[in-house]
Amino acid sequence: MMNIETLFSIAGVIAMTGWLFLLFSPLIPKWSNRIAGTILPVILSLGYVILLITPSSGNAGGFGTLADVMELFSYEQAALAGWVHFLAFDLFVGAWACRAARAEGVSFWLVALCLPVIFLFGPAGLLAFQAIRTLRFRMIRT
Fold first, then answer.
1. How far apart, in whole angstroms, are the C-alpha atoms of residue 10 and residue 61?
2. 99 near 41, Cβ under 8 Å?
3. What sign does the CA torsion over 93, 98, 102, 108 have?
4. Does the pTM exceed 0.70?
5. pLDDT tens, 76-107?
6. Per-residue pLDDT tens for 19-48?
7. How many CB atoms lie within 10 A of CB 14?
8. Do residues 92 and 40 touch, judged by C-beta distance below 8 A?
9. How many CA atoms, within 13 angstroms, populate the side-chain half-sphere of residue 26?
10. Phi/psi at 38 (nearest 5 deg)?
11. At what angle do helices 76-104 and 4-23 cross, to 10 degrees?
């Protein structure tokens, strides 16, 4: 297996490529959907699964308690798997937000405000996007 730092860098480049496609999604919606919404999250997910099934030197820890989770993530491979998990899901959610906004007529500039929040803080960005959708829906209804 490659060096953990190399895998970390590769995962980051893959994710950043997807986020760049999302920023240009108004210009290339089909490519953005394919690349940032499907292909790259699948590649990251495959990497995640490989990290999960590849034997590592760290066997301790788990998900039963916070202490178990902290111990689990003290191992490089587990921490990298957790990071790749976040990269894959956040990119997938960002791509979904772009698709949903296009389908619902939400301005890309409003979505663009949410994308960095989705990238950096996942669920908070999803919440921001859902708030924008809700406000837009209420404005349309009135």
1. 26
2. no
3. positive
4. yes
5. 999 999 999 999 999 999 999 999 999 999 99
6. 999 999 999 999 999 999 999 999 999 999
7. 19
8. no
9. 10
10. -135, -65
11. 10
3-state SS record for the chain: CCCHHHHHHHHHHHHHHHHHHHHCCCCCHHHHHHHHHHHHHHHHHHHHHHHHHCCCCCCCCCCCCHHHHHHHCCCHHHHHHHHHHHHHHHHHHHHHHHHHHHHHCCCHHHHHHHHHHHHHHCHHHHHHHHHHHHHHHHHHHC
- N-term to C-term CA, the chain: 58
The two structure tokens encoding residue 36: 């940032």
Q: What is the pLDDT of residue 139?
A: 82
